[in-house]
Hints:
The chain contains 2 helices and 10 strands; from the N terminus they run H-E-E-H-E-E-E-E-E-E-E-E. It is mainly beta. The two termini are about 15 Å apart.
Amino acid sequence: MSLTFATxxxxxxxxxxxxxxxxxxxxxxxxxxxxxxxxxxxxxxxCGEAVFTADGIAFAARxxxxxxxxxxxxxxxxxxxxxxxxxxxEPIDEARGFCRLQMRQGQLSAVVCSxxxxxxxxxxxxxxxxxxxxL
Length: 135
């Protein structure tokens, strides 16, 4: 990902002055069977959409409030994660990890995250069908 694209992401996902909604992208969290077998201790996030904001990415079932959010700083081709927030549970401040945005032909094709927060590990493999990609 080029510096130009990273700059575009920061501008596109900057907090709106009028309180407009965050950018939602439909897709699907999916995991190969080999990964499921090896990731016994990790939480494999299930989702139908990603919600992008100025300070992170949240994952939700389509049309619902996000169940989990990763917050931190956008840099390069992704998000350096500093906090994990799960719906109904206090945020975990001492999280570390990265969510990488993958592009295909100039459009978002996937978001891949590997995060450790508190006693848990979180993995995300969010795939975006190109027909549903507004970015």
